[in-house]
Amino acid sequence: MGSITSPRTLRTLAQVPELAISAAEDDLEIREKYRPFLLDPEVEATDWVSQLELDTAISMAQADIEKTSSRLKVLVLYGSLRKRSYSKLMAFEASRILHRLGCDVRIFNPSLLPIRDSVPDTHPSVKELRALSLWSDGHLWVSPEQHGNLTAVFKNQIDWIPLSTGSVRPTQGRTLAIVQINGGSQSFNALNSLRILGRWMRMWTIVNQSSLPMAYKCFEDEGGDGSGKSRLLPSGNRERLVDCMEEFVKFTVMQRPYKESFGDRFSERKERREKEAKKRLAEVAREEKELAIGGSI
Predict the structure, then answer these.
(1) Where is each NADPH-dependent FMN reductase-like domain found (predicted)?
(2) 89/229 Cα distance (integer angstroms)
């Protein structure tokens, strides 16, 4: 009986590249702060994420990196502060898939973010969140469903990201993938709310979406220690998450060249012209006033 070649070996033989940012090429500070999802190298080598057949998305991502000399930049937000947070665990799993697809993935920790308007927007966590949003090409939002809707922890993060800061729109033209975590049976209420938010923030939300029912049954080590190391068990829901992350990368690659053009809108150009005209008039009035004062001396 002939030997069986593993899927990973087949991909190696086909020379499909491994795009994940290695420790050697990564920024150590960013890696420690924003990539808590990373596995030990010996674990990653045989992990289920490493065994996924993602050749088409990897090839698209590789071509994009070669063309732009930069990776897709993805901001990940999750919506719970519990020690064993299933939305955080799900965000970690999704991030591992995106990392393997060559993305520069950064997870924002919401634990130090104050309630909206309780502090000035110069607060360090607020500035950090807004800077990450501006930096990104796309977002991944993972929210639990509580009382049939988003959690306050998740919504608070969105509320701190303004729709407009002067002429800069922190989310406009970016892509968005959405995931919902359920304590009980499957629901789509939070996903529907996430889509509304995405549209309001002028983002392109991918068609696919993921809703995980009875999350407490879906991860290893039920009860857990809150370390984030518990993994998503094999199921159709896990495969759906892979589908979503693959689609997100493909769509972001296609959309990325046009991101800036979606910030160039008629109404905003008109508003900028009007502001510039008022500024010029104010400058002329100031100069005339200075001349009048000078002439009277």
Answers:
(1) 73-215
(2) 8
Share of the chain above pLDDT 70, in %: 90
pLDDT at position 27 is 96
Whole-angstrom distance, CA of residue 68 vs CA of residue 256: 10
Residues 146-167 as b/e (b if ≥16 CB within 10 A, e otherwise) read beeebbebbbbbbebbeeeeee
Stretch 166-184: mean pLDDT, rounded? 87
Q: Copy the structure tokens of residue 8.
A: 């990973």
Instruction: Specify the higher pLDDT residue, 62 or 226.
Output: 62
> Which positions ≥6 away from 6 have C-beta within 8 Å?
51
Reduce the DSSP state of residue 101 to 3 states and report it: coil
Residue type, 63: A
HEC sequence for 120-162? CCCCHHHHHHHHHHHHCCEEEEEEECECCECCHHHHHHHHHCC
Which tens digits make up the pLDDT trace of 119-166?
999 999 999 999 999 999 999 999 999 999 999 999 999 999 988 766
Segment (H or E) for 246: helix 236-255
Q: With contact defined as beta carbons under 8 Å apart, do 224 and 216 qualify?
A: no
- Alpha-carbon gap, residue 36 to 56, rounded angstroms: 27
Are the C-beta atoms of 138 and 175 separated by less than 8 Å?
Answer: yes
| First CA to last CA distance, the chain | 106
- Residues contacting 131, CB < 8 A, separation 6+: none
